[in-house]
Amino acid sequence: MSEPVRGARVGALNAYWLALNVSNNALDPVVLPILVEGVVAPGVKNSALAALGAVGLLVAVVWQPVVGAASDRSPRGRLPFLLVGTAAFVACLPLLAFAPSFAGLLVATIALQLASNTIQGPLQALIPDYLAPAAYGAASGVKTVFEVAGTVIGGFAGGQLVSAGRLPLTFAFAGGALLAAAVVTAVALRGQRSRPHRVAIDPSRHVPLWRSIHSLATPPLRPYLWWLVNRYLAAIAFTSIRAFAFYFVQDYLGLPNPAAVVGNLIATIGLVVGVAALPFGALVTREQRRGVLVAAMLVGQARPHC
User: Fold this and answer.
1) What whole-number distance in Å separates Cα of residue 251 and Cα of residue 143?
2) Strand (E) or helix (H) holding 7
3) Predicted confidence band at 177 (pLDDT cuts at 50, 70, 90)?
4) pLDDT tens across 93-126, in order?
5) Per the domain annotation, does 43 fall within a domain?
6) How many beta carbons lie within 10 A of that of residue 180, not counting itself?
């Protein structure tokens, strides 16, 4: 029998989504472009930033499902993956902050993506692990609200801190958000040894990890594969805007204080997205979710012509 849905429980299960978006939006849109400018020639900084973004997305695409599948098989549950990923992320922040060259930034980017996606892979399953199917839509709406809130907080705070010359504090802010989420999630999952909506895996029926990933191409899981493709394309769209906004504001528009401008822009985008998160989350049921997604897609396609 599933446990009753409690607001605090749903919030705790989504705490990491808030923290991840705070951290990512405090660092990626304003800090990373500044670090790249410091180690490459001005004429190649856009290409260098694009290379870091492409490598980071590739690591995420490969590593996140691998770690997620590994957490499915873990007898200790998903929490150890979340805590290890958090510790690794915080430990790798100095690699990014003190990278002496582009190669150093590349190594730091790969390390941080591995750590971040060690969190995100298992994190994707917390809602179905601990909530009844009837609560998925509302809980997913809360997840989106937390992601948006993290985008707003991280973008605004990162922009303000960097514009004030407090780069070290920006790194501390990003790491502290994840550490706080680790504490909240660990307390919420304390004593939750059984995973109500997960089927126990018989050790005698284990299959290799690579075969589980390959099974995504089989007919029963093909819709999930298409969902992954959808998420990847959406990530490319938003990442493209976010990644190059700093150089666009600084070099093309010539506006003063580009860090603050970009931070405010990211926060504004987050607020606009947040307006629709909860009502559309409530609409996404098994019968309605396709219609909601199609409607959102059509609105997105119509937007440039408005």
Assistant:
1) 35
2) helix 7-13
3) very high
4) 999 999 999 999 999 999 999 999 999 999 988 8
5) yes
6) 16
Tell me, yes or no, whether 210 lies in a domain: no
Closest CA to 131 of 72, 73, 188: 188
Strand, coil or helix: 284? coil
Tokens of 132: 């009844």
Can you give the CATH number for the domain in which 57 is found?
A: 1.20.1250.20
Cβ-based burial of 66 (10 A; exposed 0-12, middle 13-18, buried ≥19)? middle
Q: Do the Cβ atoms of 22 and 154 come closer than 8 Å?
A: yes
**Residue 86 contacts residue 179 (beta carbons within 8 Å):** yes
In a domain, 249, yes or no: yes
H or E segment to which residue 182 belongs: helix 167-189
Residue 111 corresponds to which amino acid?
A: A
Could you read off the pLDDT of 122-176 as tens digits, one per residue?
Answer: 998 888 888 777 777 778 878 888 998 999 999 999 999 999 999 999 999 999 9
What distances in angstroms separate CA 127 from CA 15, 65, 221, one per listed residue? Answer: 12, 17, 19
Would you state the structure tokens that stand for residue 207, as one six-digit string? 């299959």
Q: Is residue 203 part of a domain?
A: no
Nearest one of 306, 278, 304, 298 to 142, comparing CA atoms = 278
Q: How many residues in the chain? A: 306
Distance separating alpha carbons of residues 36 and 102, to the nearest angstrom: 7
**What residue spans of 74-166 are helical by DSSP H?**
79-97, 102-123, 126-130, 136-163
Q: Are 179 and 76 in contact (CB under 8 A)?
A: no
What contacts 50, CB < 8 A, 6 or more positions away? Answer: 243, 244
What's the predicted TM-score (pTM) here? 0.81
CA separation for the pair 169, 68 (Å, rounded) = 32
Place of tokens 């990890």: 209
Count of structural domains within the chain: 1
- Can you give the residue range of the structural domain that contains 14? 7-191+239-276
